[in-house]
Amino acid sequence: MKRMAVLAMLACAAAQAQTGGFASECWRQVEPVFRSALAHPFLQGLADGSLERRKFVFYMEQDLLYLREFSRLLLELAARAPQQHAQTLSRHALEAIAGEAALHGEILGLKGLSGAPFEMAPTNLAYVNHLRASIWRGSFLEGMAAVLPCYWYYLEAGKALAKKNPPVPEYQKWIRQYSGPNYEKSVKEAVAIFDDAAAQAGPAERARARTIFERSARYEWMFWDMAWRMERWPPQ
Asked: What's the CA gap between 35 and 176, in Å, rounded?
């Protein structure tokens, strides 16, 4: 019964993420993937406080590495963005380091955010390479399609977990980061930028963007699963 209640709550949160426009179309396409990710045992363990700390630490290490690359790639997107969106994306890139990555460093006990003593797991590296390829080789819309699922899903995960209020302070800090009004504002800004870019694109470009959005959504599921398994480079 407890598991069913958690699943129902998370599914409801995912449904609430939908907005109008092209972003909503892309979300509907991948909603089953997001719902499955929200039901993953990693996030369920965060929600009720039962997640092993070693798995949380592994996740935070990997996410710190991911955020550094994500921030750099947002700056590259900002350089290619229409003038009205460039400043917003640049701010988001700085917030990823100043806010999100700083929290990771605090929890991991790092004195600085450079030279971390861990390496990217295979799934993490594959996800980052997908973002790079989409941004470097694709249009601005395709680049936004690659990064938007990360923005959007973390907001919904944060909101869903905030309702559970886990008894572990570190888990609470993580949840507050992604369920707060400042982060929600950034997500809404990113969705608006995506929809604006889509409005200027033709059918073929929009189709490519849908494919990229879906792939990023699947990588988000794989990221949680990577942390749950504490994925290592083979052979071990």
From this structure: 21
DSSP E strand boundaries for 20-134: none
H or E element in which residue 127 lies: helix 122-137
For residue range 41-82, list pLDDT tens digits in order.
999 999 999 999 999 999 999 999 999 999 999 999 999 999
Secondary structure class of 190 (helix, strand, coil)? helix
The whole-model pTM stands at: 0.89
The CA angle 201-207-213, to the nearest 5 degrees, is 100
The answer to whether the CB of 113 falls within 8 A of the CB of 131 is no
Neighbours of 228 (CB within 10 A): 18
Active site residues: 150, 220
Helix 41-48 and helix 2-16: axis angle, to 10°? 100
For 24, 27, 72, 148, 182, the CA distances from 17, given in Å and listed in that order, are 9, 8, 26, 12, 16
